[in-house]
Amino acid sequence: MDTRIVIPLGVLDHFKYGGLGRLTPEVEYDGQSLIILTPQITSIHAKPLSNPIGNLEHQRETILSALDFAFSGL
To answer: Using CA atoms, how far apart are residues 63 and 53, in angstroms rounded to an integer?
Structure first.
């Protein structure tokens, strides 16, 4: 199976009460405030990801912290 695990992003302005702290951290990308929707982690086929428009590699520690919190509560 050629799949990848992904975490969706949401536009922060669309969330009335903002994020849920470490579980759904806020990040900036291309001048836009986004929220990482960690509880919605899923897998998808790799093909739609073949032409990325960017990445959040610079937010690696933030993303790993959110995943750690989701899986272990730490």
So the answer is: 18
Please state which CATH number belongs to domain 3-72: 2.30.30.110
Structure token pair of residue 35: 């929220």
* Whole-prediction pTM: 0.85
Burial of 37 from C-beta contacts in 10 A (0-12 / 13-18 / 19+): middle
**Assigned token pair, 40:** 């919605």
Coarse DSSP helix, strand, coil percentages of the chain, rounded to the nearest 5 percent: 40, 25, 35
CA distance 46 to 55: 15
pLDDT (tens place) for every residue of the chain, 74 residues total? 799 999 999 999 998 887 778 999 999 999 999 999 999 999 999 999 999 888 899 999 999 999 999 999 87
